[in-house]
Amino acid sequence: FLPLTVSLACVPSSHPQIAPLMDQRVEIHGTSRTDMNGKCGVATDFHPMGGQHDRSQDRYVVQLDSGEAFKVKPANVRAEGTGAVTGKAKGKVKKGKKAR
């Protein structure tokens, strides 16, 4: 993650097939930065950095509720409220018996 100060490129929100989360509330998840996972904000920009044939370099710009902005891989951004609830979040987790 790199903090952003300037937007370099923008894909208009008229391209939902490329950036379906543009201008929507999103949640960051599944990153190696555990301090970022679970943070929410708005996807304000999209950078198609890999071109048409390499989507692995694409990044959303997410403006967090705290005011900070970060570039995040599309795989690590989801619509707010659509995330899975983990066992810890649900409450007590029961452990089953080990298979033999």
Question: In a few lines, what is going on in this structure?
Answer:
The protein is mainly beta and 100 residues long.
Structure explained in plain terms:
The protein has 100 residues and is mainly beta. 4% of the residues lie in helices and 25% in strands. The protein has one helix at 87-90; strands at residues 25-28, 40-47, 59-64, 69-72, 77-79. A five-stranded antiparallel β-sheet has the order 4-3-2-1-5, with no helix packed on it. Strand 3 (59-64) and strand 4 (69-72) form a beta hairpin. It starts with 24 loop residues before the first strand and ends in a 10-residue tail after the last helix.
Q: Which strands sit side by side, in order, in the main sheet?
A: 4-3-2-1-5
| Total DSSP helices | 1
Strand content: 25-35%
Reading the helices and strands in chain order gives: EEEEEH
Residue ranges: pLDDT <50 for 5 or more in a row?
5-9, 86-96
Please estimate the helix content: under 10%
Write down the overall mean pLDDT. Answer: 78
Count all strands and give the number. 5
List the helices and strands and how they pair.
Layout: E1 25-28, E2 40-47, E3 59-64, E4 69-72, E5 77-79, H1 87-90
Antiparallel strand pairs: 1-2, 1-5, 2-3, 3-4
